[in-house]
């Protein structure tokens, strides 16, 4: 499959400050999450992908074409910026139609597409209000509407869920998934792990301007296999269980914590731990209520990889 | 090939038109426009006060067109069009960068030069409209008794044309500096009220480095009166050459602005 977005040794500095360093990745169709803390370089990456910034080194290709000053490419791309900025004196409708006109659509098409986009983000009722009077959530939805109104093949969404209430967040997540199902390519950046986690398991971890890892959650998990791994067990006799495991070489730490009957075991060999667990439980007559892996989510992966 | 070139030209022109229509409509609603409308109506107020004062003064024989010409010279040519061009011209680019709305424009399928040209055209038309309304009302107030003298309308039209040319030229100049400099307003103030006001009075060829020189060369020189010094010039340029120079300055600075805007990287600061 041809990559939708391809970067080669992409680097960007702002004077002496590193924005992005030596990023060579290929992003394919579907949803890709660009994940990293604030200031990691996500927005710089987004701006390089949309041609707003010039790379100092390297190149970025979208569908095989260079981006910067390639205006025609933007009819296939939709971009939702991170900034909460608008032409505040305009109404939501004037803004959307004004932006759509820049795609050279005919007037009836502009009207039709604007209506559709405003309906999708549920702003039709407020379309004639000036943007200045919109709430943060409404502004965020309007920003999303301008990115999807021209029905692009590629969507670049920079922190699109910021400022949305839980309901709005859920609706937008659902909407992004609908676009994925339609075969569109979507890149979503966020510093909030659960947001990305519910959208996709195809992630790019970015920190201090560098790509730490790229792939699905399992691939990322493999990358950190040698790192300590936490397993939390709620059982009938946690002290007995702990005493059995503490002798094993692959167990690094045992913690009881505050939760009743819970023991958390840190291991550097997840496979060995899980292969010996059933026999230990059976031989010692320990009943298990729950086994969880507190770090088996993106937050943990992310924390491990960036070394927090 | 010809077909491709025609198509490309059409694409460019349509892009400019769309940007123009967006910013013309936005400009009409902007608070800044309303504030400058008030400023542009200041001469109307002055004209009204003068007319009222003249009714009760001993100098009732002073012609309205004489006062009108002095207002054009002192207020419009030396002040208003410079201020309007400075604030609207520099904002063609800088308000997009400072307001971070640039991100919406540069991610649309339009050439970057069309953003500059379309917005420049929208703002130039707006400022011309602002100026002309005030000029016409001032003219009517000051020439109330002579409105049937059609020769006066020739003067009015000429003044409007010169002011429009001035706005077109200054706007292009400040548009370029708005794309080039971060603190373009400061530079513009120094240029408008420093350079332009000083250099035009230098003898020899030096005065030709001021846009005001070409504008004043297009207007008749009052030989008497309080504001005669404002039109003082040693070597006026011929009207045809003045118009040519004003167009040339406009084209050169607009081309530079488009070129710079297309290749310069604007970093939207947090």
Give the structure's gist in a few sentences.
The complex is a heterodimer of chains A (308) and B (270). Chain A is an alpha/beta fold and 308 residues long.
Can you tell me about this structure?
The complex is a heterodimer of chains A (308) and B (270). Chain A has 10 helices and 15 strands. Chain A has 308 residues and is α/β, with parallel strands linked by helices. Chain A has 2 domains: 5-217, Rossmann fold (3-Layer(aba) Sandwich), CATH 3.40.50.300; 224-306, Alpha-Beta Plaits (2-Layer Sandwich). In chain A, strands 7-8-9-4-10-11 form a 6-stranded mixed sheet, with helices on both faces. Chain A is elongated, with a radius of gyration of 24 Å. Chain B has 270 residues and is mainly alpha-helical. Chain B has one domain (2-263). Chain B has helices at residues 2-29, 31-40, 42-55, 64-98, 102-106, 112-142, 151-180, 184-199, 211-217, 239-263. The model of chain B has no long low-confidence stretch (mean pLDDT 89).
Helix content of chain A: 25-40%
CATH topology of the largest domain in chain A: Rossmann fold
Number of domains of chain B: 1
Given the structure, what is the number of helices of chain B? 10
How much of the residues of chain A is beta strand, in percent? 25-35%
Mean pLDDT of chain B: 89
Report the end-to-end length of chain A measured between terminal Cα atoms: 35 Å
Number of domains of chain A: 2
Major sheet summary line of chain A: 6 strands, mixed
Q: Whole-number radius of gyration of chain A?
A: 24 Å
- How widely separated are the two ends of chain B? 45 Å
Strand % of chain B is under 5%
């Amino acid at each position: 499959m041809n990559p939708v977005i391809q970067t080669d040794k992409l680097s960007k500095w702002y004077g002496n400050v590193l924005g992005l360093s030596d990023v060579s990745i290929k992003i394919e169709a579907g949803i890709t999450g660009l994940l990293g803390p604030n200031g990691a370089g996500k927005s710089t990456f987004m701006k390089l992908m949309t041609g707003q910034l010039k790379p100092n080194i390297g190149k970025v290709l979208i569908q095989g074409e260079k981006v910067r000053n390639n205006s025609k490419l933007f009819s296939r791309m939709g971009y939702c910026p991170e900034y909460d900025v608008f032409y505040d004196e305009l109404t939501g409708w004037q803004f959307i139609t004004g932006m759509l006109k820049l795609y050279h659509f005919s007037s009836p098409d502009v009207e039709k597409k604007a209506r559709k986009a405003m309906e999708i983000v549920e702003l039709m009722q407020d379309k004639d209000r000036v943007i200045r009077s919109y709430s943060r959530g409404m502004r965020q939805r309007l920003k999303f509407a301008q990115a999807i109104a021209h029905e692009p093949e590629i969507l670049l969404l920079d922190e699109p869920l910021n400022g949305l209430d839980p309901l709005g967040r859920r609706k937008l997540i659902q909407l992004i998934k609908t676009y994925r199902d339609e075969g569109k390519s979507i890149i979503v950046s966020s510093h909030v792990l659960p947001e990305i986690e519910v959208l996709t398991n195809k992630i790019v971890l970015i920190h201090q301007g560098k790509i730490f890892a790229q792939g699905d959650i399992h691939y990322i998990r493999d990358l950190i296999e040698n790192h300590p791994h936490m397993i939390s067990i709620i059982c009938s006799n946690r002290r007995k269980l702990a005493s059995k495991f503490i002798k094993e070489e692959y167990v690094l730490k045992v913690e009881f914590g505050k939760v009743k009957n819970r023991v958390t075991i840190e291991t550097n060999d997840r496979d060995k731990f899980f292969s010996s667990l059933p026999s230990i439980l059976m031989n010692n007559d320990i009943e298990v209520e729950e086994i969880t892996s507190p770090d088996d989510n993106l937050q943990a992966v992310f924390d491990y990889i960036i070394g927090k | 090939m010809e077909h491709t070139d025609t198509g490309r030209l059409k694409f460019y022109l349509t892009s400019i038109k769309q940007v123009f229509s967006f910013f013309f409509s936005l400009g009409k609603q902007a608070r800044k426009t309303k504030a400058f409308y008030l400023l542009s109506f200041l001469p109307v107020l002055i004209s009204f006060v003068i007319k009222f004062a003249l009714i009760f003064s001993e100098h009732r024989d002073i012609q309205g067109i004489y006062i009108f010409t002095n207002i054009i010279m002192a207020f419009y040519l030396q002040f208003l069009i410079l201020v309007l061009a400075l604030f609207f011209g520099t904002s063609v680019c800088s308000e997009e960068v400072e307001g971070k709305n640039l991100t919406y424009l540069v991610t649309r399928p339009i050439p970057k030069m069309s953003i500059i040209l379309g917005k420049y055209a929208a703002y130039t038309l707006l400022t011309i409209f602002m100026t002309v309304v005030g000029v016409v009302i001032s003219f009517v107030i000051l020439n109330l008794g002579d409105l049937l003298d059609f020769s006066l309308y020739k003067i009015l039209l000429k003044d409007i044309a010169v002011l429009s040319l001035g706005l077109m030229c200054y706007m292009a100049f400040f548009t370029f500096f708005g794309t080039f400099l971060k603190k373009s307003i400061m530079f513009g103030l120094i240029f408008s009220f420093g350079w332009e006001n000083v250099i035009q009075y230098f003898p020899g060829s030096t005065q030709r480095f001021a846009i005001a020189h070409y504008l004043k060369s297009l207007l008749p020189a009052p030989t008497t009166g309080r504001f005669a010094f404002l039109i003082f010039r040693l070597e006026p340029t011929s009207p045809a050459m003045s118009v040519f120079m004003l167009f040339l300055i406009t084209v050169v600075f607009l081309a530079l602005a488009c070129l710079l805007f297309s290749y310069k990287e604007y970093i939207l600061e947090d």
